[in-house]
Amino acid sequence: MQRPSRLRPVLVDPLDNVGLVSKGDRSLLDYRTQETYFNTIRARCRETVGTLKAQEDDDDTLATKLGTMSLGQHGKATDSASKEALGAASTVTATPDTSRIIMGMRKLREAIVASARNDPFARAAYVFIIRRTILWGQPESYHPALLHLLRLMHPVMPLSKAEEKEFVGYFLLDLACRQRDFATAFRIRKWYHYRVETVDMVLAAMVHGDWVLFGSTKQKAGMYERRLMGWADESMASHAVQCLGKSYLSLPRCYVERCTGMSWEKLRELMNLSWKLDGEMIVIKHINKR
């Protein structure tokens, strides 16, 4: 009779049970395994952000919750509660659990591509991954997913008009705000006959360095758009600082913070400003008295 082992069983995370297809692991090439693995990723997201009272497909609610899992990038949400959560999340570093989820999404993407799958499940998985990783500020995840969805999936299994507008818009914002590739952004815009006021104003603001238009548009944009526009926050704030510095001797602190979209402390640290704070006024230039 065999004695029971006194060693505790090794606990293996379900997301670690399979490897990358590019590294030779073929476990995820099976369609049913892909669907099971995707459900595991969704469940892990919900475990990480807490129990949701909304329905499973209530994407706006889930997106707001997932915003608190930021991996250290800048971005803001639409309502005040989301702004507070995302503001606090901007300082959060990647944890082992969030990193594991991101890697699990990559494994699933590779498996879907390798198995040449293009059906409603594959599209739903890519939509889920794109939206979540945009909120997490992970371009290495959402950018290739956007390219695959628009270039390979959409021509074979077309997205709805609303979905096409949504994801083409994300692609354009990423090109303009993160990559600064304006030529490609306008070429893609023309190719898809894309006309959405919010994205058009962002493109115009980025090309012309119009920080006033950029700030006003960001206030009206949705959660995902604001997250993508966040890649350009520092460059727009820098441009605003240059304009204010050349035009004024002093300004109210609240006005400078409103123009740049940053607090005075953060602005001074990032821009290495020589401006001085005098009460509630920011002194830009001192006039030498004769």
In short:
With 290 residues, this protein is mostly helical. 61% of the residues lie in helices and 3% in strands.
Could you explain the architecture of this structure?
This protein is mostly helical. Helices cover 61% and strands 3% of the residues. It has helices at residues 31-49, 59-66, 80-89, 96-114, 120-135, 139-156, 161-178, 182-191, 197-208, 211-220, 223-229, 233-247, 253-260, 264-271, and strands spanning 250-252, 276-278, 281-283. Strands 1-3-2 form a three-stranded antiparallel β-sheet. The chain is flat. Mean pLDDT is 83; it is low at 51-93.
Contiguous runs where pLDDT drops below 50 for at least 5 residues: 51-93
Average pLDDT number: 83
Q: Give the CA-based shape.
A: flat
Spatial arrangement of strands, main beta sheet? 1-3-2
Give the % helix. 55-70%
